[in-house]
Design a protein that fits this description.
α4 links the parallel β5 (150-159) and β6. The chain has a single domain (5-183), classed as Isochorismatase-like (Rossmann fold), CATH 3.40.50. 24% of the residues lie in helices and 20% in strands. The mean pLDDT is 97. The protein has helices at residues 30-44, 114-120, 136-146, 167-177; strands at residues 5-10, 48-53, 93-97, 125-131, 150-159, 181-183. It starts with a strand and ends with a strand. Strands 3-2-1-4-5-6 form a 6-stranded parallel beta sheet, sandwiched between helices.
Length: 184
């Protein structure tokens, strides 16, 4: 990581960590790993971005509306808050996604101005970690590649939901096949 890069932490929110509404197995284990990356970014002047699901009640992704997920990351709730041990710098830029009740959005680029922000900042290379490997990290990485960024995925800083066994592994293959570099 060097100047001209950006670090993107994807959806490390309480509802995706143990005890949350849509807990990812060992999801909280990404926090110390990502904190090391955040510290490195801060020391060399690389901007840090953090995406978050910010669902309204009754979001289309929820089972009550035919979606696959239990209600999670509902706006203003403790479940939607970032994990308390994440050490974001004061300059962190928050990317809020999935706010339209009738539209799902796994990617931090979906329905946000993230691509424009990164291009305006002169970012060419994006380092990505967070939750979940097989949904939001996957979709964010693929969209970042489509938007013209060189993408590096911090594999040890991600965890998968694995609704189906092997989903995380397949997501990493998809990301690699699309042109990203997997930092293992």
């Amino acid at each position: 990581m060097e100047r001209g890069d950006a670090l993107l932490i994807v959806d490390v929110q309480n509802d995706f960590c143990p005890g949350g509404a849509l807990a990812v197995n060992k999801g909280d284990e990404v926090v110390p790993i990502l904190n090391r990356w955040i510290d490195r970014a801060r020391r060399i002047g690389v901007p840090v971005y953090a995406s978050r699901d910010w669902h309204p009640r009754g979001h289309i992704s929820f089972r009550e509306r035919g979606g696959p997920w239990p209600p999670h990351c509902i706006q203003g709730t403790s479940g939607a808050a970032f994990h308390r041990e994440l050490l974001f710098p004061e300059s962190v830029q928050i990317i809020t996604k999935a706010t339209n009740p009738d539209e799902d959005a796994y990617s931090a680029f979906g329905g946000t101005d993230l691509a424009e922000r990164l291009h305006r900042a002169g970012v060419n290379r994006l380092w990505i970690g967070g939750l979940t490997q097989d949904y939001c990290v996957r979709e964010t990485s693929l969209d970042a590649i489509q938007a013209g960024f060189e993408v590096h995925v911090i594999v040890e800083g991600t965890r998968a939901v694995n609704v189906h066994p092997g989903d995380g592994r397949r997501a990493l293959e998809d990301i690699r096949n699309a042109g990203a570099i997997l930092e293992e």
